Amino acid sequence: MAPGPIGDSVQSDDGVHSAFFYGTLMVPEVFYSVCYGTKDVPEAVAKLHTFQPAILHGFSRRRVKHADYPGMVPDDGHHVIGIFATGLTNANMAKLDYFEGSEYERRAVKVRLLEKVGNLKDGDRVEGEEKSAQTYVFLQEKFLEEQEWDLEEFRREKLKFWTRAGHIFDGCDPDTPAKVVE
Predict the structure, then answer these.
(1) What is the CA radius of gyration of the chain?
(2) pLDDT by residue (tens digit) across 125-169?
(3) Nearest CA to 23 among 173, 159, 141?
(4) Which of 24, 28, 42, 145 has the greatest number of CB atoms lying within 10 Å of its CB?
């Protein structure tokens, strides 16, 4: 097998990893752009992954100053609604680590799948099964705004820039991957 863009040691098709995404990676086109280099993957590749609504308690998601993406930090009494993704390979995880860079630390967390998302203001959601996942926690809380990051605003105003060829890794530092904490 020819070496991949990040090297032989991370190539695998095991698909045993899962992750909790709470920002730009909640959009499948961004996930595919990061992990496969294109927003339009073949159906066979798309079928390798599942994406389900989930909730992570004890954290909050906020806007990162002067950025299109959010940061998530521990915050008792709060929660973050996101996506539980499965079917991730070692190569996918290495690309995600590279994408997140040194601003984030990958951590193991427990999320609950959402059987019913409902009207969040009225608390009309139903939490289901607990799952283990990896997620990326923002390390520079001083760069976070108080305001919650808005997925729909991102889709409307920024998504088109995040799924064009070459954009995803602009400014990423290949020599400083995300820290991994088990």
Answers:
(1) 16
(2) 789 999 999 999 999 999 999 999 999 999 888 888 887 654 444
(3) 159
(4) 24
Q: State the pTM of this model.
A: 0.80
Type of residue at 4: G
What is the SS3 assignment for the chain?
CCCCCCCHHHCCCCCCEEEEECCHHHCHHHHHHHHHCCCCCCHHHHCCCEEEEEEEEEEEEEEECCCCCEEEEEEEEEEEEEEEEEEECHHHHHHHHHHHHHHEEEEEEEEEEEEECCCHHHCCCEEEEEEEEEEEEECCHHHECCCCCCHHHHHHHCHHHHCCCCCCCCCCCCCCCCEEEC
